[in-house]
Structures are given as C-alpha cells and as structure tokens.
Specification:
The chain is an alpha/beta fold. It is 52% helix and 13% strand. The strands form 2 sheets. The chain has a 6-stranded mixed sheet, with helices on both faces. Helix 1 packs across helix 2, helix 2 packs across helix 7 and helix 11 crosses helix 12.
C-alpha cells in the first residue's frame, strides 16, 4: 500500500532540493533553527534531501538570551535537529547589544554574526534560513513604511553570500502543515506576538486589514512584487558599485563631480552604500538622509556636514564627500 506524501511536506522538500542542487557532493550546509515551524520544517527538509545529494547537513540554534528559559528552548531545538539526523548541531549563545538600530536590528546583527562564526568553524558552504513568503511580504511593507527605496521593496534575497532562503516561495501555513504532518512540535516564540515590534504589528494587524479590505492573496502579491523588483535592483546596484569605485578618491572620499554627472538613481545608491559601509545601520538610514547628503554636493562654499544614524557624519568639502565617525565620547 502506497502512503501518499503530504503536499506541504512535498513542497518543502522540493524547495530544498532546488536550493541545494548546485552544491558539490561532500559540501556541508548549516540549518539555522529556532525551533519554530518555519525552521523546523527547514531542518526536516534538509535532513531528507541533503543525503540524497551527498551533502552533509548540520544545525545551529542561536540563543539570544532575551527571555527567561531561552537556553532550555535552544537545547530543545538542538535536540530535535539531532533527532532528525543533523550533525554537527550547536547552540550559539549571543549577547544582544542595547544599541544598533533598535532591538530587532541588534538581535538580527548578533544572530548573523553567530551564524557566520559557526559556519566558519564547521566549514559550511551555505547557511539555510527559514524565511517564508509571509516574511517577505512583511519585509516589503516595512520597507514601504520607512520610505527606504527600491532595495527594501525588493525584499529579502533568496541568496546573499553563503546565506540561502529555500522557503521564500512557500507560505507560513505550508511550513506549519509540514510540521504537523511530520509530528514536529513547533515552538511559539513569545516575541512573535509582542506588539512592541513593528514586524509583529504588520503581521497581526496590517496584513489582516489589507486582506479584509482588498481581498485574499495580499502576502503572495507583495512577495511577487518583491521578486519582480529584485532583478531590477540587482542591476542598479551593480552599476552603482562601478560608480562607487570610479568616484573613490585617494583621500578616502567620493568625487562630487563624478557623482553629480551620474543619474540620480545611481548617485543615491552610491551615497547609501558609502554611508552603510561607514557604519550607518541599514534600517535607520532613510531616503531623507540620503537626499540630505545629496544636497551637500550642490551647496558650494565652505565645508558643510550633516549627522547620520550610527554616529556617522557626511562631510562635503567642495570637491568630495566623505563619511566619518562622529566623536560621541564627550
């Protein structure tokens, strides 16, 4: 008697198979798993598909140490990954700083740093993240609300360096069904229902209102828009990187003339890239900040400057603009 595979499980495995297809046999991938439904479904799919492609699959859970009992939850997530067959499995405790663009950004920065360190230690070619289509929709809405430009509206990339997101085309409901079908008990992170976080308000308030007023399928439509914008923004970013290299001066600034001759879409991207590289948090640097820096290029006269997030200052001295760290010690 043939047992029919649950469609949700089939979807997660198919997405994982596509994600891992380009890896060389003998490669190692690392699953980032909190114990929630998305990352548990990710771990189960990787455990099933990895060996078929001769890819070793390990796991890591990051303990942000922000709630009581987080260490126990991290150990449970690690235990579940080990039971699924992942090896090696590690728990990575992190200290989340009280700064860095707000609590969400600070936690995210600490998490990615920990994931990179573990991946380096185990020699992982790729780190798999459990973001879904619903996460993508939330990201697009947050970017729209912040007015932070096309890159934010393009959402999360399926691949950035060693990080990969196999489930960006799947709904959160699919990962939940996949866990239920495989009898995986998913953890409910209390932060996912804390209205102090903007993403939680988007998930629990904004998206349901949009669904009620505009009809079902809003999350899928937002994710589709992000996918369509991604190729356009990748091209513009590539052209902006070329301009950034051409405009760089020997003194560490950017040639104002070269920037003013460039199309506005490239000029603003170059200024944003330079600001972020100097320490501006991506999530705090708005279009208004970038426009203010652009205004320095045409101001003329004596040197002028503006303050930017992250204790960064943009200084224009007529022929060039540079980004420097402000002295905030006194």
């Amino acid at each position: 008697m043939t047992v029919r595979l649950d469609p949700a499980v089939a979807d997660t495995r198919r997405a994982m198979r596509t994600c891992l297809a380009d890896l060389e046999p003998g490669s190692t991938v690392l699953v980032a798993c909190s114990g929630g439904a998305d990352s548990l479904a990710l771990a189960a799919a990787a455990a099933f598909e990895g060996p078929k492609l001769a890819v070793s699959v390990g796991g890591v859970t990051v303990d942000h140490q922000l709630t009581h009992g987080s260490d126990e939850q991290a150990r449970l997530a690690a235990k579940t990954m080990a039971e699924l067959g992942l090896y090696p499995v590690e728990v990575a405790p992190v200290e989340v700083p009280a700064h860095g663009g707000g609590p969400e950004a600070a936690a995210r920065g600490a998490r990615y740093e920990a994931l990179d360190m573990v991946a380096d230690r185990v020699g992982a070619t790729a780190v798999l993240l459990g973001h879904t289509r619903d996460d993508q929709a939330e990201t697009v809405l947050l970017g729209l609300a912040r007015g932070s430009g096309g890159r934010s509206l393009a959402g999360m990339r399926a691949r950035v360096g060693r990080f990969r997101r196999p489930f960006l085309g799947l709904s959160r409901a699919t990962t939940q069904r996949a866990c239920a079908a495989q009898q995986l008990a998913a953890w409910q992170d209390p932060h996912n229902d804390d209205p102090r976080y903007a993403r939680v308000r988007v998930r629990n308030v904004v998206l349901p209102v949009l669904e009620a007023e505009l009809g079902p399928g809003i999350a899928a439509a937002l994710a589709r828009s992000a996918r369509l914008l991604s190729d356009d923004t990748d091209l513009l970013d590539s052209l902006a990187e070329d301009l950034l290299n051409r405009a760089a001066t020997a003194s560490g600034g950017l040639d104002a003339g070269a920037l003013l001759e460039a199309p506005a879409a490239l000029r603003s991207r170059v200024l944003r890239m330079a600001a972020v590289a100097s320490g501006c948090p991506r999530t705090d640097l708005t279009a208004e900040h970038v426009q203010a820096v652009e205004s320095l290029l045409t101001a003329g006269g004596r040197p002028r400057s503006i303050d930017l997030p992250g204790s960064v200052q943009a200084v224009c001295r007529g022929v060039d603009v540079r980004f420097v760290r402000r002295d905030v010690g006194g």
